[in-house]
Amino acid sequence: FKIAKNIFLVYNLIMFMSFLSWWYGKGLAWRAEKILDGIERSIDTFSLGLLLKTWFAPFRQIDALGVVNASLEVRIKKFFDKLFSRFIGAFLRTIIMVIGVFYISFRAIWGVIMLILWLISPILPIILVVIFITGWTPKIIPKIREDFKNWQKNTPTKEIKPTKGKRSLLL
After folding, report:
1. Sign of the C-alpha dihedral computed for residues 47, 52, 53 and 56 taken in this order
2. Cβ neighbours of residue 81 under 8 Å, at least 6 residues apart?
3. What tens digit of pLDDT does each residue of 44-96 get?
4. In sequence order, which residues have a C-beta less than 8 Å from that of residue 41 and are 6 or more positions away?
């Protein structure tokens, strides 16, 4: 029985060490690769480089085709059509670029947070047990408790009386 108990302990120790070596080795590399793929997909979705290259290009210009032998009035009209279309295009591309930069930055920051959580999650149960045993609480918990008691004191209590009326068959 003693030998079987020792074999069981050795087996569990080997499994635990295998888990940790995978977690901090291949698992960490896999997680980092997934995070970088997500950021890369976001960069590809917003295409910031292409938006910068075409920043002042006309936006969906259907009517303002090139005119060769047209009157001055038609040429001026086409010029202002193109100019207006360029302003609309620049405005929309600017909005998309700003949203894209914020979204890509958010994905990068979220990725760093996820990597940090990946690194500490195997030891997090040990940390939480130590916190539980020592009785440590964040400084905000007593403030929340005090605010709740003050709220209870200041809330008027009303006695709710049941209404007498017809009862349904189910009640």
Report:
1. positive
2. 61, 63, 64
3. 999 988 888 888 877 776 565 566 677 888 888 888 888 888 888 889 999 99
4. none
